[in-house]
UniProtKB/TrEMBL annotation:
<keyword id="KW-0812">Transmembrane</keyword>
<feature type="signal peptide">
    <location>
        <begin position="1"/>
        <end position="20"/>
    </location>
</feature>
<dbReference type="Pfam" id="PF00135">
    <property type="entry name" value="COesterase"/>
</dbReference>
<feature type="domain" description="Carboxylesterase type B">
    <location>
        <begin position="473"/>
        <end position="584"/>
    </location>
</feature>
<comment type="similarity">
    <text>Belongs to the type-B carboxylesterase/lipase family.</text>
</comment>
<dbReference type="InterPro" id="IPR002018">
    <property type="entry name" value="CarbesteraseB"/>
</dbReference>
<dbReference type="InterPro" id="IPR051093">
    <property type="entry name" value="Neuroligin/BSAL"/>
</dbReference>
<keyword id="KW-0472">Membrane</keyword>
<feature type="transmembrane region" description="Helical">
    <location>
        <begin position="615"/>
        <end position="637"/>
    </location>
</feature>
<dbReference type="InterPro" id="IPR029058">
    <property type="entry name" value="AB_hydrolase_fold"/>
</dbReference>
<keyword id="KW-1133">Transmembrane helix</keyword>
<feature type="domain" description="Carboxylesterase type B">
    <location>
        <begin position="96"/>
        <end position="469"/>
    </location>
</feature>
<keyword id="KW-0732">Signal</keyword>
<protein>
    <submittedName>
        <fullName>COesterase domain-containing protein</fullName>
    </submittedName>
</protein>
Amino acid sequence: MIIKSIIILIVLLQSQQAVGQMNTCLKPSGCSSDECCFNIVPKTGEICHPIMPCYEPFSKDCCLNTRVAFTTKGKMYGYAIILDDPYSYRDKGKRFLQIWLGVPYAKPPTRGNNLRFMEPMQPDYVDKWDATYYRPSCPQPLDRLQGLTNPVADEDCLYLNIFVTNTTLDEAKSNVYPILVFIHGGEHTYGSAQFTPGHVLAQTNIMVVTVQYRLNAFGYLRLEGSEATGNYGLMDQVQALRYLQQEAEKFRGDRTRVTLMGHGSGAGDVALHSMSPLSGMYAEPLFHRAIWLSGSDLMWGGFTIYPGESQRYALELAVKTACTNQEPGEMLSCLRQRTHAELAGAASDSQVHERSWLGKPWSPTVDGKFILDTPENLRSQGRFAQTRVIGGITWDDGAQFTTDLPGVVENASLSAALFKERIMNISLAVFPHDEHAIAKAIEFEYTDWAATDNDTARLQMLRDLYSDSRNDPKTRYMGAYHGSDLQYIFGLPYLNASNWTNLGIQRPNFGYAADLDMNMTDYMMYFISNFVIHGNATPQLVRNFTWDSFRWNNRTYFQLNIQDNFENDFNLYQDYRTYHYAFWNNFFPDLVVRPARMTTIMPTPAYLAQYKTSMFALGGILATIVVLIAGLSIVLCRLMRTRQTT
């Protein structure tokens, strides 16, 4: 359905229209310094465009839209959008939405700078910086960025995007706003801050900051015996938070009220920050509240548990990039000489080696600096920040793992044979011992015994399985799938077709139900923004409702479900999926550690395969030499006997 209303009329600038620093600027009459510079002229030409409806008979002064943030690292030239038009989300009088895109918070960690696989460093000072367009995403296969109209990946990617309103045109009377910092997900291997523009959410009187950080091997390579200790992506996030502590007020942000929000693997990172002496446990914490969306450090791939796992992935990467048969230091130097495209491609092919490993390639690990021990140990010792936290998932968070099954897309159902087959595949891929017994236990737990012949119910149980064990209207078979909540939290249903184009994001191929989706957006933004501002999602009653906190004696959770007929499921419940979680937390661990009925033969790791081959070859050569020596000995003995006889 075509969206009938939008929040704002966004006039954004394409990345090709501006590059690098400012070259000069045009000053209005009576202006003698850069401080009152409005129209920026970059090296490629003028970038100041009239904001609609900035045309006759309106004053040309409404094109004076540049905003300058005077940071300790230089002047950051962003721009502003006037929000006193009929399309604004909340019409509270004449005000600006101020935007800075591509603000550098660290030096580019590139091969050319010799900073690859190193902790981030403070950015260099620049006199004038063009903060009017998105910078490239961090290195990853470009097919992971298909949602962008012009996907670009580069090592020079450590930038912030900042969105904040100003309730008055008088700069001297502007407020400072609590800050929401968003860490995107993507299994630590892919993703981009550009997918979650903050234009709409910032209109709830908060500053929205989205962060780019290093991914896959660039962010998590750990190589024993070298200076590569891993967790560079997490250290990037720490550096971004430090930058905001130092510079936030220059952008009208309140550094004493920072909420860190993450999604998927990003939520796992937020959980780890709460246990890190560099951020959440720092003497002066870098954030004060947290939001975990569809993830935590306990999820599959949220944290690397086994000490040797990161080393195995590093050596496998070295094999794929022809950096083997060297000392660790030399191997690291070799990896630093490869192009970012070569490394990103090789890192994306990494696979889980052992069936007992519940981690994924390129995940956080204990490094003795950012994280001092495993999360389990730190929690048991009480070594975590005492902050307010919102944590939640979508109803069908695991639905994305069912779309490859035959019949799911076409019929929104699943046969009994495919159900059993998928459960067996899970057991074979993940668990080390008696996979048949484990599969039977999982099948028993996730069979709807009241509807054993119902293919639709069976599909829902498989979705629940993926959601529980890992702790939109897109399509009818996906339901409220993983990530579908982000479009409502960031207010995307309010954007029209031209907004999507200007943002450089491909519009979803499904249509939003205007009233229904905007209603959901209003609620989601209301709860999130109130938590950021007050530390309480419902500081006032909402439809006679107050969100009670979760406690061990009540296990209260809030469920928001807006129906097609606007009959909202808007209530508190208790004990969310208690029986399923009891299965995974209590019964299942004992089943996994039970001795197998027969010895399990573990596959040979990829990085050891060449050495195994070499050993077999060497053994064959030695055996051949022994046979030759034996044969020559026999011949010599016969010759000796012949001479003696003669």
